[in-house]
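INFO  loader      accepted 1 record
INFO  loader      residues=409
INFO  predictor   begin
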Amino acid sequence: MKQQIRSKRRARGLVQSLCLSLAFGAVAAHASTADGVKIGVLTDMAGVTADATGKGSVEAARLAIEEMGGSVLGKPISLVSGDHQHRPDIGSSMVRKWYDTEGVDVVVDVPNSSVALAVQGIAREKKKLVLFSSPGTTALSQAQCSPYGVQWTYTTYALSRGTATAVVNEGGKRWFILASDYAFGKQLAADTETVVKANGGEVVGTVFHPLNASDFASFLLQAQGSKAQIIAIANAGGDTISAIKQAAEFGIGGAQQLAAMLLLITDVHSLGLQAAQKTYLTVPSYWDMNDGTRAFTKKFEARVGRPPTFLQAGVYSSVRHYLQAVKAAGTADSDAVMAKMKSLPIDDPFSLNARIREDGLVVRDMMLAQVKTPAQSKAPWDYYNIVRNIPGDTLAWPLSESQCPLVKK
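INFO  predictor   done
INFO  writer      dumping C-alpha cells
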C-alpha cells in the first residue's frame, strides 16, 4: 500500500512538473509579444560579404524600426545582431538561442545559403519567422520552403535569367563558369547553365573554388584555356572582387569577357569603374532609383558612409513590411503576421511590383543595369545605367513547376 501511495505521488509530481513546463513554454512563446517585438539580424560582420551586409544590414533594420517610431502595438521594438561566420553550426546555435530564450520574433538577412538553409529548418521547427534578404539559393522557396520563411530580395534563378539572357543575346554564346563551392555558387552555376543553353549558347566547362579564396590562378587558367567567349563569375563579395582583379592580371578582357552573375555596388566601388565598366548585371534595386531611395540613402550614408547594397536595402524593406504586418494583425503571432505579410502590398521605394507568393518567394520586377564608364559617372557612387526593367514574372519559375510542398497544384 505504501509503495502504491509513493507511486501515485511520483506520478502526480511528474504531471505537475510537465504542466509547469508546458505553462512556462507557453509564457516564453508569448513573452516577446507582451514585452514588445524583437528582431534578430543574422549577418556577416567580418567575412567575405561583410561590406555587402554586416553593419549596413543592422543599420538598415534600425532605420526601418525608427520609421515605425520605435514601437508597435504600444510596445517597444528591439534589435539584436550576430555574426554567423559563414558556418551553419554557429548560425543555427545562435538562432536557436534567439528563438528559445531571447524572445526573438523574426530573423532577417542571413547571407550564405548553407547557413540560411539550416536556419530555415529551425524556424520551421519553432514556428518563428525568418526573412532572407541575402541568400540566393532557390531551395529556400523550392524543395525546402517553409510556411515561416520568405525569400525576399533575389534568387540565383532571377539573376542568371536577367544577366545571362542579355549576354547570350549580345552574341556571347560560348561560356565557362567559375563558381564558389557551396550551395549558393552551385545553384547559381546550374541556373546560369540552364539559361545559357535555353538561349542557344553552350557551357564548355565549370570549376568551383573554396569560399573566401585568395588565389584564383588555377581556376582562371582553366577558364582561359577553354577558349570560352564569356567567363561567368558566379560567387559573391570579396570572392567576386578577387576573381575579377586577378582575371585582369591574366589579360582576360579582350577576346574573353567576364560576366558577373552577382555584382554589388560595393564590388564595383572596390574594383573601380575602369575595371568594371560596361559589365552587365541584374539588380532588384539601386540607391538612385527614385526620390524615396535617395532619401533613404541619405540617412543610411550618414551612418555607414556609403549607399546601401541591394542586400541591405532588402533588409530595410523586409523589416519595414514585417512591422507593418504586425501592426495590421494586432499581434506578433507568426501565423497571423505571415498571413498579413502575404495579403498586404509591399510598399517601399526599393520594391517594384513586389508580392509574396504562396511558396514564400517575393516576386518583384528587377532591372538590367550596365556599369558606367569613368566618363559617364558624374558623382560618387553614380555607377549604373539602367538599361531596362525586367518583369518579375519572367524572373520566377512558374508555380506549376514548383517543388515547394506549400504550393497547391
